[in-house]
Amino acid sequence: xxxxxxxxxxxxxxxxxxxxxxxxxxxxxxxxxxxxxxxxxxxxxxxxxxxxxxxxxxxxxxxxxxxxxxxxxxxxxxxxxxxxxxxxxxxxxxxxxxxx
Length: 100
What we know:
- This protein is of the alpha+beta class.
- Strand 3 and strand 4 (about 70-75) form a beta hairpin.
- About 35% of the residues lie in helices and about 30% in strands.
- The protein has 4 helices and 5 strands.
- The longest helix is centred in the first third of the chain and has 13 residues, at about 25-35.
């Protein structure tokens, strides 16, 4: 999968020293997804069982034992994942993951 954008992940990590513990889990997630070849939502679920599949290509990934969340939109035919949100579980609860 091609991930757009690594810059979003790095910006979150560097936003606050409180998020420094997210660096290793987010980079591990990035490497895992970069190596993936998902053609459908079922492929995501089979590969990452804790992922939540939403409507219209949206997927929520739990990072670092559900301490952080990544919301992504996946264009399956082109194998491209767009990072739409990175944040803490509390920050995630304050957004509408379907529309961000």
